[in-house]
TrEMBL record:
One of its GO terms (cellular component) is plasma membrane. It is found in: Cell membrane. Its main location: membrane. It comes from Brachybacterium faecium (strain ATCC 43885 / DSM 4810 / JCM 11609 / LMG 19847 / NBRC 14762 / NCIMB 9860 / 6-10). This is DUF3817 domain-containing protein. Keywords: Cell membrane, Membrane, Transmembrane, Transmembrane helix. InterPro entries: DUF3817_TM.
């Protein structure tokens, strides 16, 4: 059985840096979306006496929802890029995508992913191993 191909540590770290920024931006964007939806459906929705102010939140929601969707798509693409560079198994990719779905989870997922990247780069062979000797 041949030895596994070494990882390119520079490419992995660069990919993780992009994913880290995307995780933070996605986490903030999702929290904003949750706030907007709370205002739209929770506070100003339904048959209340102040339902006339709800068109404002309808408008805000119609603008922010596609922006958040685009941010999530960028997050998924950057997560996929990191997954490819690190050569992880499929469940890890699905977990990376899941981190961007639940509010606040992307912040914890970013920390967890950082630990996994660091431990994998330490344990697995990299192209830069010869330069450190």
């Amino acid at each position: 059985m041949p030895a596994p191909r070494p990882l390119d540590e520079v490419a992995c770290r660069t990919s993780f840096a992009r994913f880290r920024v995307a995780s933070i931006v996605e986490g903030i964007a999702l929290l904003v979306l949750v706030g907007i939806m709370t205002m739209r459906y929770g506070v100003y929705g339904g048959d209340t006496w102040f339902a006339s102010t709800s068109p404002f939140w309808d408008q805000v929601s119609s603008v922010w929802s596609p922006i958040h969707g685009l941010i999530y798509m960028v997050y998924v693409v950057l997560g996929f890029d990191l997954w490819m560079k690190m050569r992880w198994a499929l469940p890890r990719m699905l977990l990376l995508m899941f981190f961007g779905v639940i509010p606040v989870l992307s912040f914890f997922g970013e920390r967890w992913t950082h630990q996994k990247v660091e431990s994998d780069l330490e344990l697995r062979p990299t192209l830069q191993d010869g330069e450190r000797s």
